[in-house]
Write a structure and sequence with these properties.
Blueprint: E1 9-14, E2 26-30, H1 41-44, H2 46-57, E3 65-75, E4 78-87, H3 88-94, H4 100-111, E5 123-129, E6 134-140, E7 151-152, E8 155-156, H5 161-164, H6 179-198, E9 209-216, E10 222-230, H7 235-243, E11 253-260, H8 261-264, H9 271-274, H10 279-291
Parallel strand pairs: 2-4, 5-10
Antiparallel strand pairs: 1-9, 3-4, 5-8, 6-7, 6-11, 9-10
Length: 293
């Protein structure tokens, strides 16, 4: 679904307004048909070239497996994610390829679908509301591969390896994966990212509620499931915990910022802050605003 919000984002799916989707109401359908389609040979081989170039300049990159979201079905109160498998190499080689625009045009001309050749690795992110009614944002490190230096929400990816272990994407048998395990990984990874990035104990967080899915147009439509989570700690308590710098992802951000929830609902009118947000944060804020309008 396209929306006239911001050129950095489009909305792929919006959960029912004011309600959201709990863990109990999410389902997944895992099938090979939801994997990306192979590009013509001359372009498919270019993925390796892009990956070699990126890893040569950033030795921290590694080719982990990811879930690929193809589409979403919502019926009654149940939301279903149609998922395949992809990998980080394919994500870098398609969504971040210099030829990404061409790949999307090929998708439209050959399959009437701009994303059919794209990795579209599913991300997760969350707007975390503190006990004193602030939202949490992090200043991304300049070493981050995406949106470096911008304000972002805590986020990352659900990881297939948490379910099947460290095996190659083409070795994963989708039919052997329990769908509920994937649902749990989507929600659990959202909580894990908050804990690892902000240093908040899991016991202080409510279970995430899905607001919708936003696409990042700066990475060729990369999708991210955006959630809302409440925290029982105040902004002062969270600042203290974050400042210790001993959490797993402390090196991925350089600072923390708290914005009043009432101000977040009007954030687009504050261009200095809005323009400082990473696309994933813009998508989450847009969805949160729609749910509270």
């Amino acid at each position: 679904m396209s929306a006239n919000f911001d050129p950095d984002i489009t909305l792929m799916f919006i959960a029912p307004s004011g309600q959201g989707i709990s863990r109990n109401n999410l389902r997944v359908c895992l099938e090979k048909q939801f994997n990306r389609k192979q590009l013509p040979p001359q372009f498919e081989s270019a993925i390796d070239s892009v990956w070699k170039s990126r890893t040569a300049s950033n030795t921290t990159l590694w080719n982990g497996t990811k879930f690929r979201i193809d589409s979403v079905v919502f019926k009654d109160t149940i939301c279903t994610f149609n998922l395949g498998i992809t990998c980080y190499k394919d994500f870098i080689g398609t969504n971040w390829s210099p030829n990404a625009k061409l790949y999307r045009e090929l998708g439209v001309s050959e399959h009437n679908n701009s994303q059919v050749f794209m990795s579209d690795a599913l991300g997760v992110g969350s707007l975390v509301q503190t006990a004193d009614n602030f939202g949490i944002f992090l200043r991304r490190s300049l070493n981050c591969a995406e949106a470096s230096g911008l304000l972002d929400i805590p986020g990352g990816h659900p990881e297939p390896q948490e379910i099947v272990g460290k095996i190659e994407a083409d070795q994963i048998a989708l039919e052997s994966i329990a769908p509920q395990a994937v649902v749990d990984e989507i929600y659990n990874s959202t909580l894990r990212e908050i804990c690892d990035a902000v240093n908040i104990p899991p016991s202080c967080l409510t279970d995430p509620v899905l607001l919708g899915i936003a696409r990042n147009t700066t990475s060729s439509g990369r999708p991210s499931a955006e959630f809302f989570v409440r925290c029982s700690l105040t902004s002062v308590e969270i600042q203290t915990r974050y400042s210790t710098g001993d959490h797993p992802e402390a090196d991925e951000s350089t600072g923390i910022k708290f914005i009043k929830i009432t101000d977040i609902l009007q954030l687009k009118s504050q261009s200095d802050i809005w323009n400082d947000l990473a696309p994933s944060a813009k998508g989450c804020v847009e969805l949160f605003t729609l749910h509270n309008s």
